[in-house]
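hey can u check if this looks right to u? its 127 residues, i copy pasted from the old doc so theres a chance i mangled smth
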Amino acid sequence: MFIKQPKGNLFSVTPRRLYFLGAFLFLSLITAYISIRFIPFLFSPEIVLVNPSGENVIVNSKDVLVSGRVKNTHSLTLNGKELYIRENGIFEEQVNLREGINAIAFRAQNIFGRSTQLVKNVVYIKN
């Protein structure tokens, strides 16, 4: 006849349980960090123009400062030229216009290849 030996308390603290708890917390923190940093890139990029603003833009200057902000974006091009994006998503670039209608085309792309395009027409009228 065998007598069952009583086991330790189910909620007792042992080195093995502390190890598994620490490993679980570490993996949870790593997963949370990766989610916070990379999940926004799953969404389509956004482009918000600050300057020039409005539907129809008419200027009297040959040069215009184009500026704005992007979200969920890895790279941004303006008429095929790569633009520098600051850490907070702000960009700006001086654009040289020719007389008449000028199409300013933006293309934002995230790290997974999703892209958004925005075209702004600016009319330059020489004085």
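The chain has two domains: 8-42, 43-124.
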